[in-house]
Structure prediction request, 213 residues.
Amino acid sequence: MKFLPEMLTLYAITDNTCLRGRDLAEQVELALQGGVTCVQLRNKELDTDELAEEARRLVPICHRYGAPLIVNDDFRAAMLAGADGAHVGIDDAPVAEIRRIAGDDFIIGATAKTVGQALEAQKMSADYLGVGAVFPSPTKKNAIRITPADLREITASVKLPVAAIGGITAENVHEINGCGQRGIAVVSAIFAADDVRAAAELLRQKAEEAIAR
Prediction:
């Protein structure tokens, strides 16, 4: 699937602890029905083969709604599953290495917390950046915080589209309006909600407002 910046509008990241025993594939589909534009499969407890198997379940669901499936960290699992790409952190496999192995059509996202990291990811041919944590994160309690001014500086420094991430909810997303992000990435605000589809619908509206300002 060809990467388009609008795929970042509402970027949902899975977290099994948020699901409270609910089926992952069913909840992902509800999120997509609510307006999610990209799904990232994140499960650090699985090995490469197990993660690939989980991803295989989600690929056709995501594609039915025109959304890419991105696998967190493990680009080899993404390739095995036929997923659309991988998102890598600062300490994971270098973007340039993944690009060399996976090819030009493989979507690669990279985490950036500084202008320097953002510029390096762009140089290595990442497709987009995940920048945060912009708020305290319930899923990554030790995440380094960045301010709206930091987010604005990073988005202005690169040509790559940026998804803001970290503790974003429908109630606080307005605080990063006008910071240059192309979308928002959320975990618990969608998958911990009692009504995943309704939560996604509201967040999609708020994400578009944040982009428009």
